[in-house]
Amino acid sequence: MTLADRRQARSLPALMLLLLVALVWGATFSLTKGALARTSAESFLFLRFVLATMAMMPVIYFSNVPGKRLPKKDEFLAGGLLGLLMWAGYELQTIGLRSISASLSGLLTGLSVVMVPYISHFFHRKVRSNAVVATFLALLGTVLISGFGKVNFGIGAWLTIGCAISFALQITVTDVVISKCDTVRLVFVELAVVAILSFFSLAFSTRASLGVIASQLADARFPIVFVSLIINALVATTFAFLAQAYAQRRLPATEVGVVLALEPGFAVLIATFLGAPITLAEALGGVLIIVGVAWAAI
């Protein structure tokens, strides 16, 4: 077996894992949209990240030798910052899904890949020329989706754009700190911080009424909420972040970005398959956003 064959054999599982992650992330928009018809965004996020954090505990136990299972100071600090950014992104995305379609949410969230090169500039990294082209395509796609300004995006779309900014910051900061931290311990701290912040959001939204909190958490008994929680927590969070870390150790960053750029495309396809209406202008706008996102990742 040649060196090229060995590299291909090593990278194929990583590529397949990333493709699965993009598909799962794309599917969660429609799943979450359905769950939010039965429960609040705050309780949904809290339960999602509590389950995801609990699922990380056995991973930490078996992936680290005794004495190295607890996160270090740098991992607490880095994980805390990443958790704050991730919490802000998911909070804005989930609340935004109350008033916009799953397909639009997926497309706008995908803009985070276009934003990363510009945010990286503040970390003394050069902005590549393809980022400018990607931004133009993505903005043109957004204009088409909005009906050339005739359709008011509304608060839901703007919250989702804020979500994309938060995710772009999270991606950039992760790139800076990942080499200095253990991946598993870093992800554990990150998810735990999101769970804690989500609890405070839930308590604030219910004015810390234990009765209302208990009532909202009990919404998990509804099948759509329960199924969405399990898939979002165990597959789209715990598994997805570990799979992404696995892939990034075996693939160039450009290949990782290109595959994950398929997420908004999957979101639109799944939402359309489930019966969500879409116009020709929205479809063309979606294609331009996806092309822009992929171009930024190349």
Describe this structure in words.
With 298 residues, the protein is mainly α. The protein contains 13 helices and no strands. The two termini are 29 Å apart.
Number of helices: 13
Radius of gyration: 19 Å
SSE order: HHHHHHHHHHHHH
Mean pLDDT: 78
Tell me the number of structural domains.
1
Structural class: mainly alpha
> How much helicity do the residues have?
over 70%
Coarse morphology: globular
Beta fraction: under 5%
Task: Please give a quick description of this structure.
This protein is mostly helical and 298 residues long. It has helices at 3-35, 41-63, 73-96, 102-109, 111-121, 129-145, 154-177, 183-205, 210-217, 223-248, 253-260, 263-273, 280-297.
What are the salient characteristics of this protein?
single chain, 298 residues, mainly alpha, 13 helices, globular, disordered N terminus
List the helices and strands and how they pair.
Layout: H1 3-35, H2 41-63, H3 73-96, H4 102-109, H5 111-121, H6 129-145, H7 154-177, H8 183-205, H9 210-217, H10 223-248, H11 253-260, H12 263-273, H13 280-297
Helix pairs in contact: 1-4, 1-10, 1-11, 1-12, 2-8, 2-10, 3-7, 3-8, 4-7, 4-12, 5-6, 5-7, 5-13, 6-13, 11-13
